[in-house]
Amino acid sequence: MSSTAITLVTQRKPLLKLEDVFKCYAMGGEEVTTLQGVSLQILQGEFVAIVGPSGSGKSTLMNMIGCLDVPTSGSYWIDGQEVSRMKDSQLAEIRNQKIGFIFQSFHLLSALSALENVELPLVYRGMSAKARKEQAQHALREVGLEERMHHRPSQLSGGQQQRVAIARALAGQPPILLADEPTGALDTKTGLEVMQMIHTLHRKGHTIVLITHDPQIAAQAERVIHIVDGQISHTEVMQA
Amino acid sequence: MKLSQAFKMAWKSILSNKTRTLLTMLGIIIGVSCVILLVSVGQGATSAVTAQVQGLGSNLLSVSISGRGVQTSVSFEQAQSFQDIEGVNAVAPTVSGNVQAKNGNKNVNVSVEGITADYEEVRSTKVQSGRFILPIDVDYSQKVALIGTETATDLFGTSNPVGAYMMLNGMRFKIVGLLEEKSTSNNTIKIPLTSAQRLLRSKGIRTIYMQAQTGDLTSIVKARTEQKLSQIFRSTDDSYTVTDQKEMLKTVSSITDTLSIALGGIAGISLIVGGIGIMNIMLVSVTERTREIGIRKSVGAKKRDILLQFLIESIVISGISGMIGILVGLGGGVLVSQITSLTVQASLNIILISFGFSVFIGVFFGIFPANKAANLKPVDALRYD
Ligand SMILES: Nc1ncnc2c1ncn2[C@@H]1O[C@H](COP(=O)(O)OP(=O)(O)O)[C@@H](O)[C@H]1O
Ligand SMILES: [Mg+2]
To answer: Do A109 and B292 touch (CB under 8 A)?
Structure first.
């Protein structure tokens, strides 16, 4: 058993690599350093949780990993490409092709139906309307919301909205899924459902980075990275 | 992203924000329709007045003698001799005054003009029924008359005045012609010049209309006429004035131009106010929509995708409202011309200019703030609230 697990791990290639990443903000003339030299690697197909107290820089780190923000210094590679040197339009392509986001506050467009929200990443890929619709419907089916696809976000419960957001994240089949406290705005039961879904996606081969401050949720990951004051304090490898 | 998809997205966004869309549209509609309406009224007035001046007669010069000292007028023969000035086509001396016109118990005070046969051509005044004054009427001081439409109605009601008789200061005149509708002659009676000299007891001629052979000749003819008059009046050159129609047109057009500029100015202000309204709404809506821009960017929208969406949105909104503005402006023009007596004349130029300007404003203020938001990093746009 354990020997197969080891060969599995050695077969996995590094997908994300951060090296000595700093992030500074200018706050009223004063410089605030939120990330202080973070270096880490995440392997293809891995399920990593990032935990730490509030304000420790978890979201900042995730935004960096998801190419929503760029490091002040340090370098970052995805799949061997150096992201930290890319132009805005290239970053947009990386987000579009490689990354799916699940945010704590869902971030759905209120004027669009569930289906249209899920289609959005595919729209920016330039897919045809028909293929887009099929793929988006498939994603909604996977999160069990196919019959609600014409509802607006305001007509859905919080758990349903988060499932729409998950469908949007996986509609384009990106290799990397990033979730920033995805259960933070949900009650325990719907939170569990969402976690079930994330496990399913992991089994299907997605690389998952999950941010949480809940140790129980973190314990479900393969590896837990602890962050304190913008630095990695230690890493735990969990026994499956 | 494909263009057709960008169109669909923009359309969806227009429909899903009705208040914003309506407010933006209102600004453009008001601006465009005001410009079209006001400028049309101005241009209508200009062309109406110009037509009136031109209706006085073509290539027209008029000599008016105010008189100083011994000689206060010219004689009929002297006036007729102006005919010999080089470049003159025809001459129409007149005398005028007011008389009491009577038919039975109907009685009006009306202005009478004594004219010659050439008046018809020089002043382009025609009869709609009957005949004009003939040279023989002037030679024999015939008691015949032409009557303007309003005076005819005053004296004869709806019955045909041609062939009827009326009394002018107690003298009996036969009406031989009914003048055509023309604002300057509706309230007049015209009789042979020699008859008028008797009726009004004034021999001297103080007004002479002259027609130059071509429009280019009017100023030369004017100079020659002035020379001739200076011989008659022995250099007291403030005894007479010669004006040509071109000068009158210039005066008129300087007045109507002022009118047009004033109206156009008011209209321009309304266009600018509308534009500021659009700017305001677009700025507010982009602030509102920064989070939307952040979400779109997080799923892979590039800056140009965002700009394309906003560009199409603002073009569609401004274009549709510009067209509504044109319709409202033209409709308002029709209404104004029906309710009031104003002439309204729309011009394609103004329609195109006001449409183009409002669409430009709409697009500029649609793109300018959107550009700002599209430049934000996705993380900053998402955080926005
Ligand atoms: N745009 C910003 N400008 C200034 N300070 C920021 C900005 N974003 C985050 N920070 C600061 O960085 C620190 C880490 O924030 P964050 O990554 O959101 O923490 P966490 O997600 O772990 O709670 C906080 O102190 C926060 O105030
Ligand atoms: Mg956070």
So the answer is: yes
